[in-house]
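B., you asked whether I could sanity-check this one before it goes into the benchmark set. Here's the sequence:
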Amino acid sequence: MKKADEFEKWLIKKNIEVIRKDNVSYKNNFFKKKEFAPPDLFCIFVLGGDGTFLTAARWIGNQNIPITGVKFGEVGFLAELSEKNLFSAAENIINENFITQPRMRLQVKVIRNNLEYFSEAVLNDIVINKGTLARLADIKTYIDDQYLTTYRADGLIISTPTGSTAYSLAAGGPIIHPSVQGILMTPICPFTLTNRPLFVPESVSIRIEIEKKSSDIILTIDGQEGIEINIDDDIIIKKWPYPVNMIKIPGQLYYDILKTKLRWSGSRV
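And here's what the prediction gave me:
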């Protein structure tokens, strides 16, 4: 990317050591040994869209490394900077003229044969849905081991407030400000119209079972390619204790990004 080359040279001229990662991706790679960001990084700039930001956030792991996104063209919900103000904002960040906002993450585990088969951190959402040719999924859901309901639907989205503006929004879920702590559960095309999105406290543990009459169920993490779920698997979702610390530039408001992205009246296009 031309802008990445230009930015890298600009940083090097300021005697700043740069580690550049091109195409950090975990697609089809969930079960391989993961490579994480060096612990001594001052911050991370993500040049690209929201998908690139999500994989970069996973690269951080449980480390307290501030991160900021730089958007190109279409506005992204996770990008704090635009291409035109990259260098001026980077100057402020280098001079430590910024604050960070913690963004809640979730941890999803798949328990198979009483053993932990899969575990991953999630910034946006976990989606449990049926495959292309499958019928409606029957998703039995518990909160703190208390039975809630069995969603009969195309799927179920479990999202953070940050992820409320992603797939959940398209499925009819509400917009949750990222500073509001909680977990959002949004059914996808539920068979029962009274199954509505539900926002629960951040402290709860959500357990999901797939009923035996369901088949061809996929679990997807942050829009990355996911894994197949067996009918005997337990899916456990909780708040992860390590948030993503997103860099905030003074004067940049969440509501401005929201209005522009959703093309509300009064927004800048």
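One thing to flag: The helical segments are 2-13, 50-60, 86-94, 167-170, 254-262. Otherwise nothing jumped out at me.
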